[in-house]
Write a structure and sequence with these properties.
It is built from 5 helices and no strands. It is mainly α. It comes from Candidatus Propionivibrio dominans. This is CsbD family protein.
């Protein structure tokens, strides 16, 4: 998964994030705005996990959503 793509298309992408981490509020998702570091911090806060665990969860999420941006955006 390309985080630059996710950040640039956050409004469309955040539904996938919300599906994965349902405890994150819409306000938190808006604050994250596609920034990976912000996502990790919000996961830590919402789920009470360590930095390493949050990073592992994000890595698994990236692996599940390995998709290329649409051709007209690449």
């Amino acid at each position: 998964m390309n985080w630059n793509f996710a950040e640039g298309n956050w409004k469309q992408f955040k539904g996938k994030v919300k599906a994965q981490w349902g405890k994150l509020s819409d306000d938190q998702l808006d604050a994250i705005a596609g920034q990976r570091i912000e996502l990790a911090g919000k996961i830590q806060e919402a789920y009470g996990v360590t930095t390493d665990e949050a990073e592992q969860q994000i890595k698994r999420f990236e692996d599940l959503h390995r998709e290329s941006p649409p051709e007209h955006l690449s």
